[in-house]
């Protein structure tokens, strides 16, 4: 029996709640999950959400969740700035934690979080759900068996358009205090995929840009935008492969695009998160006159698709990725090998992002470490 | 508080269990759901699944589920041949039922089921989940506002390849006792979409074929295949529109295709369940030089996508359709309007399928009613 | 040296002229082509076009072209109703002919054309250019080597939207004297592909419909439309395979769609003329976990692409198909084997179309022969 | 009457020959074209090709072509290293020239070519055919009318796989004397599109890489590869827009990809040369619930498609682009405005490429001018 606490009930909080509700019915091989304690900014909201999500207790103070002796693991889904305090407190209280990405607004905070995790001996996992999709997991297997030979070039793009409207008012995401912009918001996700599939990044050369230099404020004045909605990065992986990473949160038309292109000596692989239930494979082993990208629909033989649906091509959704991540977390808590980004790797992702930002500021190639 | 019973824990049984587990967390506006009683073919399996799926009681006899006074609604997910007895018993016991499609192997059994539902006054819903997708629901709205004008032609195809292997052995699906073949297996799904979007079918002209006339049996002999893996139908809708329906369960390469083409006086709409998180719209209202099919990714403004994910283009999965259906069922039980195929419409779907089969047998156009 | 005559300079006339201008430069292996004589409805237009297209002589009377002793082969690209007279005259005059499809408005005229061709001993080819594309030709090879095993199901659709505007005025294409509608306009093209890839059609069951029952005339009155813009056909091939053929010339959004689906015991093939430089192949010989439709871009190894471009994936255009057809015609004239639809097969295509129309009129299955 | 000379009869030589053969028949509005003189490396080949392509004279010495008084314009389609001498000689001889890209292996040679062109007063055009496609031309119009608002981000990729085979032997393209690699081979094409659509590039930061450090020579030894098959560039346009350019000639699976992404304040545009008969447009002017990328098939209203085919969606091919370019060249020779890249712009393209190379060598941002 695993006792669960949840702090935060926004986009990701609900997503965690759904995962905790379903993980056992989907996978069968995990202990019973008890939704113990939900924390929100105030008691009224906490009670409402606990009721909806099926939690037994509700508190307007997150510390009550962390201190609850029936809670074994805490989902932390609040805004980034609260992660360090909550995560460190939870770890100190002896809880495993499942914290949404990125770790923290500053690198030193992220370092402190990793130190706390190490000291606690508890599992400290991050919510990098895109690595969990059956297509990505299968691509990882295919790369390992060298189906496309030795990798020699990579490209990855992450684009959405939620900041693309020039008439939207100035908000906190346009302030430098929120971070760099696309790098924080988006670059971490492609990096989680790169880390999972190819290893770490060694050197980066970054350019950033602002689609809109100023925005209107609520009172009608213009205010200078301080963050960069677009980032483009030349990079070298530790394994020697060169490539590019691009992120744009003002890319009209793109909704949830994470487009990966991997080129090897014997073929190539394409993937786009907007069509996450398929991927494309080109292999030179096919007869020359019939070589072409295969559009492969995910199916039960692409793990763990079969735990959700026994029929091929029927499709998982975004929320299912969190259920898979939850399952990995439970395996990890149980001491089994797990496919999961924990604080140690999470810190390296953030180190890479900060190196990108420094590269832009200094207009030069920067070594990540 | 709604008490739930579940009979059957295969593909669809698990899918129902997941829906019951998540419906409240997703939608928030429904009563608490209590997973009361699970029935399976034997006690051991029932206990195991009840444990996994979170049901409080388990029985090796489905009648125990139906007779359980704490159960308000029963999910029936057993093979079709058991539907009539179970559904009628459950309705007689005063339970609402949520029965997987199709209703029954024979039309008279289906009629008896509808009669039982009418007599009971209880909700008797069918598991036609494809009508629940945000894309389909939005297409329905667009058709109602005549964004593509007056409809004048329809085409729908449903294709999978689970029967396509010529080396697979003869099994019960090849016996005439299992039904007609593709018509039973598949045609009901496209019909559920047609009914939802355009109304009923009035006349049909059907052809059927067998890709493989014989199959090997386990003992190595050849046995004649009695069912038809492929069905192609000319049809007229009650609203006067002509079109075609095709179904093929031996279509290599197709995994979960349900491809709809709708042509109107001002545009057209395309949809394919294999890429269920998008649909295509062509409208002549666009300037001539920029007319083209728009690939529209589902998003929070396509109901009820936003209940699952607040960001556009992130995608729902097959299992999410069942959660939506479950929500509609609960609304219906609560006396609210619901988007659901109940026994009355379900019977018409089956009437249409039987008319198709008769058309093939008699090699002529057949009126459905 | 081959002397060429051309009658008609509309869409297809220009297309023939371009083919005659380029065929030797593209293929190299044909005799020099001399553009001798061009005929149009009046001398002024004939002279202008002869000038543009590079013909040496021009006449306002097509008979002058046919009678020209320097002319060896005549391209006939006038409206269908003129084909019989011109083709028969040209054959009698001892010319080879290259006549645009379809042969003639009536079947008896088409029969007379075939009789004239047989009597003359000259080549009488038809302009069924879609069979010439490198993708289609390669699909033909793949089918012959049974890469997808034994074919068991076919579907083909041809759709455009040039008749889709409900506000367009009544014109001659809406009159019964122009033929049946979509059947004449379109069905012949898919049939040319079916004949080329699979052989002839034995039985048909056809439905037809009118998107718009009436249209405005120039003087503002309503007039009943007499032709059918949409035709849907159940069919059986002579080789026993069942399938469907659909044609719609009022399908908003479709511009030049000819979508073919071929299912076999070991895979399937897809093609769409709107993306004629690619085709899709699914084969069960691929490892199960990586089976998917390959999108294969045409390339020099798909004959005769390499005659046009030595680099793969660069794409041929619609007019290139006519150059290929022209090359086949010249090979045929030279007594070599050629990939070409001549009058004998053309008559069978028309016989099939007339059988479809009869099937609709009589509301029953009709044997083609 | 325009007298044409052609030097070189490889891929591009044939392409020019086809264009000269067809341009008048396609466009109608140009003077008669006389194919006067063809030059090749030896007389025998020259005679053979002149015969095939329809040229009146043939020479084994290119100077004979240039000196021919009947020749008004010379197509130069030999390998790059010969361009400077031939182009300068032709210009001095008072001929217009149509020279394949890039201008020359060295920048100083390219400068000398421009100087010669200026001095001659003749037209000196380059073979940047991708700017001629109806889709690209229409995109240019749409950008000019600001259909997607103000541009704020650009991405362009050009990828093929003709160098991707690791087992292919070392050849001249792997020697530094051939140039930088992908930059010379490919980057000039995307730059021609960027110049046409957005203007010039001001600053670049380039990374290059080698997929295969060594290759086998014919005698079995390993030899170090000196050129870079992949180049990735951060760039700023003179108009202030930031973006990226990537080129890879070892990208397995890519055959003729030139993928453009343009993001603006009111929408975005996508194009891929592998599907050159379509482009994609997303506009925020569409109602929110139906916003999506429109796939727009080229049609007669996208100039000059209609000169080739009067029906939409039927598709032009790669060779047709050269016919359009030829038409522009003739318009330019006749003193009319033309859509063409001449030596002045061509030199700027090459300046940009050399700046990219310098940026890589110096590992820093480089100003193009």
From TrEMBL, chains A, B, C, D:
UniProt keyword list: Oxidoreductase
Stored Pfam families: GFO_IDH_MocA, GFO_IDH_MocA_C3
Occurrences of domain GFO/IDH/MocA-like oxidoreductase (ranges): 136-269
Sections of the chain in a coiled coil: none
Keyword Oxidoreductase: yes
Keyword flag Oxidoreductase: yes
Residues in Gfo/Idh/MocA-like oxidoreductase N-terminal domain copies: 3-128
Gene Ontology molecular function, alphabetical: nucleotide binding; oxidoreductase activity
InterPro entries: Gfo/Idh/MocA-like_OxRdtase_N, Gfo/Idh/MocA_oxidrdct_glycsds, GFO_IDH_MocA-like_dom, NAD(P)-bd_dom_sf
Name of the featured protein: Putative dehydrogenase
């Amino acid at each position: 029996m695993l006792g669960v606490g949840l702090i935060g009930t926004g986009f990701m909080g609900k997503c965690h709640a759904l995962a905790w509700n379903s993980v056992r019915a989907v996978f069968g091989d995990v202990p019973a999950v008890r939704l113990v304690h939900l924390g929100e900014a105030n008691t009224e909201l906490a009670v409402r959400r606990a009721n909806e999500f099926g939690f037994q207790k509700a508190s307007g103070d997150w510390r009550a969740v962390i201190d609850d002796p029936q809670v074994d693991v805490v989902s932390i889904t609040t805004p980034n700035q609260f992660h360090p305090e909550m995560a460190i407190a939870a770890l100190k209280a002896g809880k495993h934690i499942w914290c949404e990405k990125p770790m923290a607004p500053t690198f030193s905070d992220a370092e402190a979080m990793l130190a706390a995790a190490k000291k606690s001996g508890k599992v400290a996992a991050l919510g990098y759900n895109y690595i969990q999709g059956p297509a990505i997991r299968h691509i990882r297997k295919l790369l390992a068996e060298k189906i496309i030979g030795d990798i020699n070039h990579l490209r990855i793009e992450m684009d959405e358009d939620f900041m693309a409207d020039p008439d939207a008012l100035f908000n906190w995401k346009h302030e430098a205090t929120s971070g760099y912009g696309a790098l924080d918001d988006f670059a971490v996700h492609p990096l989680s995929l790169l880390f999972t599939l190819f290893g770490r990044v060694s050197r980066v050369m970054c350019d950033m840009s602002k689609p809109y230099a100023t925005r209107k404020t609520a009172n009608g004045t213009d205010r200078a935008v301080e963050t960069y909605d677009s980032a483009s990065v030349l990079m070298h992986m530790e394994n020697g492969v060169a490539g590019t990473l691009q992120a744009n949160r003002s890319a009209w038309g793109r909704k949830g695009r994470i487009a990966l292109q991997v080129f090897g000596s014997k073929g190539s692989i394409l993937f786009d998160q907007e069509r996450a239930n398929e991927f494309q494979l080109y292999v030179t082993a096919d007869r020359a006159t019939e070589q072409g990208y295969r559009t492969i629909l995910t199916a039960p033989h692409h793990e763990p698709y079969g735990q959700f649906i026994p029929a091929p091509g029927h499709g998982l959704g975004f929320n299912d990725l969190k259920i898979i991540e939850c399952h990995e977390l439970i395996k990890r808590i149980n001491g089994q090998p797990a496919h999961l980004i924990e604080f140690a790797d999470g810190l390296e992702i953030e180190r890479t992002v900060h190196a990108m930002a420094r590269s832009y500021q200094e207009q030069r190639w920067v070594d990540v470490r």
